[in-house]
Amino acid sequence: MKFFVTATVGLAMLVSASAQTIVFNLDTLAAKAKEKAEITLDGSMLTEALKVAPEKVKGLLGNVSRLTVRHYEFEKPGEYSDADIEAIRKQASSASGWSRIVSAKEEHESVDIYALNQGGKPGGFLLIAAEAKELTVLHVIGSIELASLKEVVASTIHFDLKKAEGQ
């Protein structure tokens, strides 16, 4: 999505630790999706995953304390609506310290980026990227430059999370 790339590259904001988590449940949408990717890493699981990650990822994500990714692809347009994700937007808009810093909308696609300000310092990041047949929600707590996040997402890095589980 071109908005995601433009917003990510254009922002040189640093997200720092101790952020307020945005809680969201997209199980209903997940059940409708033809393809999905759901990642939640925090605490010891994140620490273990980073141990087996390539050095490039460790350097970019080493100060992240929580990473939540939800990506859904649907068979056809209309299988989810804007109302399905409005609760996440409302939560971010009404939570103390959170504010929308990017809002871009075209026909059949939109991007919203929220940041948490804690005592004058950034403390969290939330991205909601919606297309007619795709939805991505990314929530990061910890230190990461948005440009670095784009680099991780755009890279072809693959590593086995089973190693992090000791299997």
Q: How would you characterize this protein structure?
A:
This protein is of the alpha+beta class. It has one domain (2-163). It is 32% helix and 38% strand. The protein has helices at residues 2-10, 27-32, 43-51, 55-61, 82-94, 146-154; strands at residues 14-15, 35-42, 63-73, 98-106, 109-118, 121-131, 134-145. Strands 1, 2, 3, 4, 5, 6 and 7 form a 7-stranded antiparallel sheet that branches. A hairpin with a 2-residue loop joins strand 4 and strand 5 (109-118). The protein is globular, with a radius of gyration of 16 Å. The termini are far apart. The relative contact order is 0.27. Residues 2-19 and 156-165 have low confidence and may be disordered.
Please render the helix and strand layout as text.
Layout lengths: L1 H9 L3 E2 L11 H6 L2 E8 H9 L3 H7 L1 E11 L8 H13 L3 E9 L2 E10 L2 E11 L2 E12 H9 L13
Antiparallel strand pairs: 1-7, 2-3, 3-7, 4-5, 5-6, 6-7
Helix pairs in contact: 1-6
